[in-house]
Design a protein that fits this description.
Radius of gyration: 22 Å
Strand order of the largest sheet: 2-17-11-14-10-3-6-7
Largest sheet: 8 strands, mixed
Shape: globular
Distance between the termini: 43 Å
Number of strands: 17
Strand content: 15-25%
């Protein structure tokens, strides 16, 4: 079923056009809805995949060579910066959380980019934040303290798209007069690819400016720096897409893992929402599925442009279906369907894609917040701002998690 003939496609298209959503984002969402109407669930059963036994190790890469500096002149770095720090008492972007003294994630990111530019002697690599409407203003205002950070054309960011929430039964776009803004949701970081096509033909503009390689990572990952050894490997190997993976631990067993699809031998990313309920035990088995996606991705932009052209302008990323209440703060509000996609899922879209096992220091995210909590525990304001950390239930859950990890260490290895 082509997107243009999918039921309700006209309503969806009109709603998105009225909200000034870019045409590539509209096309990508209508493609997802069409596949939903065709019966695609996005689920990836265990019987259709096999574990990935081994991947290339970072330690096996050649050390940095003088030529790596020239490659940075052909690199763009994008940091995903759409998340808010509401879970940690912050009303603004998570990237504005202080992580050392008064320095935030954005401080470390900006200084790292400026250091690379001093080494190249140019305003390269290109640097962009992929903001959301909720994070753009505060992030750009904060970065004004780095006047040399904007690119040669003055840009510093682009804003991710938004998509309509759908009725889970009819797949029509929902309406919510109490708060019309709640009729929309983010499409997941798979929106990277439609965003590169929209926003003033960003992908074409990067290529026209001589940018050939792209490194994408989460803004809250301090370890995700533009690494010269990996960049050189990407350039010399001819790979289209390279995913940094890390060894799964008990703390990572709920996250997406790398696997291989049996029918075509392609590497694929399976997220928790894509796992059928009966396969949950195998999904969480960190000895069977050993590698998790760090969301540090390297892409050859010319190959991405060619793949987009070959697939009609839209990468067919697997569906991720989430049913939630339309008002996240009101559990009695109507249930809606949110269609999302993961940018790492594009690993299956390229003939030449691979993964590399990286050191743990390249995954220094603040997902579990343990270090952040420890540094602020004695602050008198801490218990007032975060009362749940002092509750028995919070510590019972963490003690249980530690016991599970200890038991896993003592369990026999499954080959």
């Amino acid at each position: 079923m082509p997107p243009s003939t999918a039921p309700h496609s006209r309503l969806i298209r009109e709603k998105m056009l009225a909200a000034h959503v870019s045409q590539p984002a509209i096309d990508a969402f209508l493609s997802a809805v069409a596949r939903l109407e065709q019966g695609e669930t996005g689920l990836l059963p265990e019987q259709e995949i096999e574990p990935v036994a081994n991947v290339l190790c970072y330690e096996d890469l050649e050390a940095d060579a003088p030529g790596s500096c020239a490659l940075f002149e052909q690199l763009a770095v994008i940091k995903l910066n759409g998340g808010l720090g509401t879970g940690m008492g912050l009303s603004g972007p998570k990237s504005l959380l202080p992580v050392r003294g008064h320095d935030t994630f954005l401080d470390f990111i900006a200084r790292g980019i400026l250091q690379h530019r001093r080494e190249t002697g140019h305003r390269r690599p290109v640097f962009l934040l992929m903001n959301s409407f909720s994070t753009q203003a505060a992030s750009l205002r904060y970065l004004e303290r780095y006047p040399d950070l904007p690119n040669q054309d003055g840009t510093l960011d682009f804003v991710q798209n938004k998509v309509p929430k759908l009725d889970p039964n009819t797949h029509k776009p929902v309406s919510w007069s109490d708060a019309p803004e709640l009729e929309w949701c983010p499409p997941g970081h798979g929106d990277l690819y439609p965003s590169l096509q929209g926003h003033g033909r960003l992908l074409d503009r990067l290529l026209d400016a001589g940018v050939r390689y792209l490194f994408v990572s989460n803004a809250d990952n301090l370890g995700a720096t533009a690494d010269g050894r990996i960049l050189r490997y990407l350039a010399e190997s001819g790979l289209s897409f390279l995913m940094e993976v890390a060894a799964r631990t008990e703390m990572d067993r709920k996250g997406g893992h790398l696997t291989r699809r049996i029918r075509d031998g392609r590497l694929v990313l399976r997220e928790a929402a894509q796992c059928p309920p009966d396969d949950g035990e195998q999904f969480h088995n960190i000895r069977r599925h050993r590698f998790f996606n760090t969301n540090n991705l390297w892409i050859q932009l010319e190959h991405l442009r060619d793949e987009l052209a070959a697939s009609g302008g839209t990468l067919p990323l697997p569906l991720i279906r989430n049913c939630k209440t339309i008002d996240p703060q009101n559990p009695d509000s109507p249930v809606v369907l949110q269609l999302e996609s993961a940018m790492g899922a594009a690993i299956e879209c390229f003939d030449r894609s691979s993964a590399i096992l990286i050191e743990a220091l390249r995954t220094l995210r603040i997902m579990h917040y343990a270090a952040w909590i420890a540094r602020r525990w004695d602050d008198p304001a801490f218990p007032r701002a975060f009362p749940w950390f002092d509750s028995p239930r919070y510590w019972e859950e963490h003690i249980l998690s530690l016991r599970e990890q200890a038991a896993a260490l003592d369990s026999p290895l499954i080959l």
